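To illustrate the input format used throughout this study, we show a single complete record. The first block contains the structure-token representation of the backbone; no residue identities are included at this stage. The design step must infer an amino acid for every position from geometry alone.
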């Protein structure tokens, strides 16, 4: 199973993050010293995928620009002898091959994925990484799915256990555990009421799918929130050739949730040894009870 491309949908409105996202894409909000979407692209690269297919909209050109050269800024840094920063910004431009597709109407995540059909339909399989879901651990999140997809030759989605009271924020699966942390999926429900969720296994923003998914997406009617839901198309995949879910190991932050976004900033800043003690010094007086 050859997997060379990843689809990263970044065309949503980001209404949970207003007013910050009035003119700045949610995926460009900084998480410590990088925009959130850069962590997602770096995870793809660490997993061996270099072709990035962004699903964007008319206001998101700044995302493509971030992964391109900025020759004027490079000149300024070069003349100022700021060679470390120069190397840093060049390295971002050289991270990946980027392809952009416009999602002309924001009809949901499933519709965003469908926009990539012509670009990925000739491939054996492709990955999807949601542009505002950050995952960190020893083994990159999408790599954990690629390993299972290649060995089982089936589409795979990433899941994580969430607290019962939060199941109504996610797509939730039920399935049979076929080996430790790997499930054959039977049922998927988008944002179920807390009392009706079939489990606490929530779909997080990582998928490895085959072009079969497009046939299912084309049949999906608008579901939860009037959007074309990827979760509904995945039910078609589970009922047909089959679908596996892998419990992803690592930490996850949803950039669209303020508490998780702010925690991600502190988490990354604490990894920087030069900043760590200064930051702790500033935080301590804010948390006198801790
Ligand atoms: P979200 O569910 O977080 O939606 O989308 P959103 O519109 O970005 O944000 P809120 O809920 O209004 O705050 C998950 C991912 O899918 C993309 C988003 O950009 C985000 O990365 N998406 C969503 C699209 O690309 N197109 C859509 O029509 C909807």
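Output of the design step:
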């Amino acid at each position: 199973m050859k997997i060379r491309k990843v689809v990263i949908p970044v065309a949503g409105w980001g209404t949970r993050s207003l007013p910050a996202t009035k003119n700045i894409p949610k995926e460009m909000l900084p998480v410590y010293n990088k925009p959130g979407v850069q962590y997602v692209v770096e995870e793809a690269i660490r997993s061996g995928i270099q072709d990035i297919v962004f699903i964007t909209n008319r206001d998101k050109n700044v995302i493509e620009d971030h992964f391109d050269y900025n020759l004027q800024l490079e000149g300024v840094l070069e003349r100022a002898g700021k060679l470390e920063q120069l190397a840093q910004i060049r390295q971002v431009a050289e991270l990946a091959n980027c392809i952009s597709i416009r999602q002309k109407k924001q009809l949901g995540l499933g519709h965003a994925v469908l926009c990539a059909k012509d670009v990925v339909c000739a491939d054996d399989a492709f990955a999807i990484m949601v542009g505002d879901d950050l995952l960190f651990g020893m083994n990159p999140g999408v790599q954990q799915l690629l390993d299972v997809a290649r060995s089982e030759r089936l589409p795979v989605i990433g899941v994580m256990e969430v607290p019962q009271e939060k199941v109504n924020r996610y797509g939730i699966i039920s399935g049979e555990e076929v080996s430790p942390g790997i499930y054959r999926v039977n049922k998927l429900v988008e944002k179920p009421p807390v009392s009706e969720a079939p489990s606490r296994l929530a779909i997080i923003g990582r998928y490895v799918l085959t072009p079969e998914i497009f046939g299912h997406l084309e049949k999906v009617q608008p579901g939860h929130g009037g959007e074309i839901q990827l979760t509904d198309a995945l039910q078609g995949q589970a009922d047909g050739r089959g679908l596996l879910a892998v419990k992803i190991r690592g930490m996850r932050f949803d950039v669209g949730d303020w508490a998780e976004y702010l925690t991600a900033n502190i988490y990354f800043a604490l990894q920087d040894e030069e900043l760590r003690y200064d930051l702790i010094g500033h935080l301590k007086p804010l948390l006198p009870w801790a």
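Structural context for interpreting the output: Residues 9-17, 26, 55, 103, 106-109, 111-112, 130-132, 256 surround uridine 5'-triphosphate (CB under 6 Å). Residues 258-271 form the longest helix (14 residues).
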